[in-house]
Globoside alpha-1,3-N-acetylgalactosaminyltransferase 1 (FORS blood group) (Cyprinus carpio), 378 residues
Amino acid sequence: MASDLSVCHLGLLHILMKVNFYLFFLALTGFSLTGHSVLRVTKDTKPNSEMMKFLQNANTLLLVVAVVSLTGLIFLGYSSTSLRYKEKRFCLKLSYKQPSVVGPDGKVVPVTPWLSPIVWEGTFDPLLIDSIYRQQNITIATTVFALGKYTQFLKDFLESAEQNYFVGFRVHYYLFTDQPEQVPEVKLGEERQLTVLKVPSSNRWQEITLRRMEKLEKLIESRLVNEADYVFSLDVDTKFYGRWGAESLGRLIGVIHPGYYQTAREQFPYERRPESQAFIPYAEGDYYYGGAVIGGLVKDVYEAAKTCREQLDIDAAKSIEAAWQEESHLNKYFLYNKPSKVLSPEYLWQDFKPHTNEVKIIRFSQVIKNYAAVRPNP
Ligand SMILES: CC(=O)N[C@H]1[C@@H](OP(=O)(O)OP(=O)(O)OC[C@H]2O[C@@H](n3ccc(=O)[nH]c3=O)[C@H](O)[C@@H]2O)O[C@H](CO)[C@H](O)[C@@H]1O
Ligand SMILES: [Mn+2]
């Protein structure tokens, strides 16, 4: 937004400078011509003739115009230099080439242009990385929402998590549901815990998914600050198929959406209406992040959830809902607050999507669902 403003100011300044320059040039020419005429008329006629007076007045006026436009030129020149400097500092940082996820040689890219790792199979040693974090005696809080018919996904989600997700670590699931009686009995591993939190449902799925930000924000405030080191918030209509361990830990974590990792950014389904707080212009954006995964240190996830909730509230007050609800706001947040680690689409796949060469292992995937049957509204 800052860049649009200053670019606009800079354009106006340039027009003003041009107008000033021509004015100065014309006034100076006029001044010298009238000055010359005054000298000639003085020789030929009486000093107080009408003609003489007119020429003298015009000469003085043109001098004043020339001086004013010269002062204007100096002022505008100074302003445009300082604006250009500001633009360099605050705006140009956002105009850069879209980073690629898979290189032209078909090889995966293991690092972002701001030097955050992109986690792919083969870029880390699972035993080593788990042993580093295990020494730190950390607790990983994991929030999951199962409202309405989505409780049917809980069994597979929890059972597959117990097999693959942070095995050997202290994991505390916080399960938000409107029907605690529907939560299945799942045998949890040692040092693993599940807390059920009852919340009201909604008759709009959009409201259910976007309200997760507020619930996450409040849960961090009331409990997680004291109960956990890291937190992940995950979609429930999912299953773990492979290891998901300490390689995914970091300050602020996002996942690249499996549907868009080879898409040009102008085709990302970001929110494109400037009235929304989630608005991202066509020339901006790094990756399209999936709303199904957000994680990191408790404090950093708190900032992200709080900011998204605030932006969602501003939009709601204007009766505007971003294209993909909280996912759109999360993408906006990540554009200006870059994740410190980015999970590759191995960490968010879709069961219906055929396997591709670059994704060697699928760790976590959205199961196939009948939208009409599971959601409360179309
Ligand atoms: C793969 C991926 O990135 N998915 C995102 C995508 O569509 P999805 O189609 O994956 O959204 P979704 O229907 O799975 O809803 C997201 C989550 O909200 C919860 N839920 C939703 C509806 C309901 O009736 N009950 C319920 O509990 C549940 O935890 C679910 O996993 O866009 C959504 C926002 O539009 C979310 O950002 C999802 O995370
Ligand atoms: Mn989902």
